[in-house]
Write a structure and sequence with these properties.
heterodimer, A: about 100 residues, 5 helices, elongated, B: mainly alpha, about 60% helix
Chain lengths: ~100, ~220
């Protein structure tokens, strides 16, 4: 558990790092803040693991994509599209009111 | 890894040109691409799934009516989302629901970071703010644990129980693969608010996963 001691000697605490983790991943931190985070990560096992967990969470969430189009909605939309095309043709024939 | 689920504006452009020419396949490709996202977004404004599907249907009709006037220089996504939110808001008001998105976005700054304050040594302690018990090394868990339907279910439920604005941001960013700027534009959020909402959402999903994987 030496890591714990060393983490607190840095000017950033683990608790603070946890609060900054998204800004860090989003590359939204100014350079000096980013360096503080990276210095801390370099020797803190706990935060290193936490960051890895966050990355894994993001990757796993990315696997949830799904198709939500019901058959009924598909049929309705196709009908609407045909009506629309047909209506547009009508309008053109009528001189595009 | 975002490549296969994030669609570029150029892909859209291609489909829009075909749609204008009345191409059915192009129309349905656009619909497939955005349907799930639109329904989730509509659900933030209206009460139930049926109403959300109505709103999305109206949105596509709006797209057909407006496609001739759509400015190709702007993003189709942004334009599509404007139509959706306008219609969803109208419907939401009619149904007696009010949910101004950005009004709630910045609230709750006192919210903890979702890790549990007791995971850190308390103020005044020699190691104040450092982990009092280290996070688990997930790389030490068998790969198979991550790939199950059960794990997906854990994430799904965690997202479902988020406040609507957090849910929407994490869905667009991490499931649908949108960029931060696209989400900001579509939901009319400041850079900071977008990030804060994403942070809270991801933190809670991580927490749910940790509880499940480490139990």
């Amino acid at each position: 558990m030496n890591e714990l001691t060393r983490a607190t000697t840095d000017d950033l605490t683990c608790r603070e790092l946890v609060a900054l983790v998204t800004a860090y991943l989003e590359q939204a931190l100014p350079d000096h803040e980013r360096l503080r985070v990276e210095r801390h990560l370099a020797h803190c096992v706990g935060c290193h693991r936490y960051l890895a967990q966050m990355r894994q969470t993001i990757a796993l969430t990315g696997q949830l994509r799904e198709d939500d189009l019901t058959e009924e909605a598909r049929v309705d939309l196709l009908k609407a599209l045909r009506d629309w095309r047909w209506g547009r043709g009508e309008a053109e024939r009528a001189g595009g009111e | 890894m975002t490549e296969d689920r994030s669609f570029s504006d150029r892909d859209d452009q291609h489909l829009i040109t075909a749609l204008r020419a009345g191409d059915e396949h192009a129309c349905m490709a656009l619909v497939e691409r955005y349907q799930a996202t639109l329904i989730r977004l509509a659900l933030m404004y209206v009460g139930d799934r049926g109403a959300a599907e109505d709103v999305v249907q109206e949105t596509w009709l709006g797209v057909l009516q407006g496609i001739g006037r759509f400015e190709e220089r702007s993003s189709f996504k942004t334009w599509l989302f404007r139509i959706l939110t306008n219609r969803a808001k109208t419907r939401g008001v009619r149904d007696g629901r009010t949910l101004p998105f950005s009004a709630v976005a910045a609230s709750g700054d006192g919210e903890d970071d979702g890790v549990g304050i007791d995971r850190f040594f308390p103020p005044g302690h020699e190691f104040a703010g450092a982990w009092s018990s280290l996070p688990t090394d997930w790389d030490g868990l068998p790969e198979a644990r991550f790939l199950t339907d059960e794990t997906r279910g854990v994430i799904d439920r965690a997202i479902e129980t988020l406040p609507p604005n957090q849910r929407e941001v994490i869905t667009l960013r991490d499931i649908d693969g949108w960029t931060a700027d696209e989400v900001r534009n579509a939901l009319d959020l400041s850079e900071t608010n977008q990030r804060v909402l994403l942070h809270r959402a991801r933190t809670k999903v991580r927490q749910a996963l940790a509880e499940y994987l480490e139990r």
